[in-house]
Write a structure and sequence with these properties.
Elements: H1 27-40, H2 47-52, H3 56-70, H4 73-89, H5 99-105, H6 109-140, H7 176-189, H8 196-201, H9 205-215, H10 222-241, H11 251-261, H12 264-291
Helix pairs in contact: 1-3, 3-11, 4-6, 4-10, 4-12, 6-10, 6-12, 10-12
């Protein structure tokens, strides 16, 4: 499935990425990070937005335009719709329950619940990052936001209960089998890094190894690609035609801001990469969640 606005496109070669982690930011960017996590109701900054933040002029212009969009009830509703679409579609991959296997390994009910709670954090949080990535690429590549959606701010809580903290199993923390698993994830997904989701789930190595072994054979299948392509197209339709744009975020202004930091093709390639990979990440998390439903 293609989209009349933007095809789903994995850049080749993969561009160099320079994510700016939370512990290294201060001043304006630290304020923006805190505001973004609060608006999205997530406990982590996605690699996508940390990579954007490497380019300060671009990141400032983007967040100024994005903030009222992501705070809107329309944005929250469209994120929910994308999640429902992914979780229904992934059932066509026939994920089998991992619970019996994990119980045999000695996992207690409270440990399974802890994994489910973490999966809920990512099941909620990846959709807004995909919408943000799609808005960004659309504007950088000549599209615009119609801005016809309802800009009324969302009131209340739409994310998991606050207080969740992510314990990440970084490669330099991990044993040899986990590092080999990370290398397999990168090869299978065609990415130069391991997403936060996987590093957080690897806190339970035996669980995550079993879960990935059952997921990975599907990644190159036609059914999997159709799921990802359908998410890509559905999100672009929402971004271009159904979201508000009260701050009048425009493509030309964003391109000018990007070009003030670096040659524009560098940021365009980065935007393409994240908009390409996030449908797959959402699909993968939906599959992992279904394994423990």
């Amino acid at each position: 499935m293609t989209h009349p606005l933007l095809p789903r496109l994995r850049p080749d070669p993969i561009p160099a990425l320079h994510p700016l982690p939370e512990y290294l930011v201060d001043g304006e960017r630290a304020t923006a990070y805190a505001a973004m996590k609060q608006a999205l109701q997530v406990p982590w900054m996605g690699v996508v937005t940390m990579a954007y933040a490497h380019y300060p002029t671009f990141f400032r212009a983007l967040w100024q335009g994005l903030e009222p969009i992501v705070l809107s009830a329309s944005f929250v509703e469209h994120c929910r719709e994308v999640r429902v679409q992914a979780e229904k579609a992934v059932l066509s991959l026939q994920p089998k329950s991992l619970a019996p296997t994990l119980r045999e390994l000695g996992y207690a009910p409270r440990e399974l619940d802890a994994i489910r709670e973490l999966l809920e954090v990512f099941s909620h949080g990846n959709q807004p990052y995909l919408l943000i990535a799609s808005i960004t690429r659309l504007l950088l590549e000549g599209g615009e936001l119609d801005g016809i959606g309802d800009a009324t701010p969302f009131e209340g809580r739409h994310g998991p209960l606050p207080g969740a903290s992510l314990v990440l199993m970084e490669a330099h923390h991990a044993d040899a089998p986990t590092r080999a698993l990370y290398a397999d994830i990168q090869r299978t997904l065609g990415l130069p890094f391991v997403n936060t989701d996987y590093r957080a789930l690897a806190r339970w190595p035996s669980y995550f190894r079993a879960a990935w072994q059952r997921l990975s054979p599907h990644v190159q299948s036609d059914t999997y690609r159709r799921i990802c392509d359908a998410l890509h197209a559905a999100v672009l339709d929402r971004v271009a035609h159904a979201l508000p744009n009260p701050a009048r975020l425009r493509g030309q202004a964003l391109r000018e801001a990007a070009a003030a930091d670096t040659p524009l093709p560098e940021i365009v390639a980065m935007a393409r990469l994240f908009q390409w990979l996030l449908p797959g990440l959402i699909t993968n998390v939906a599959f992992l969640r279904a394994q423990l439903a």
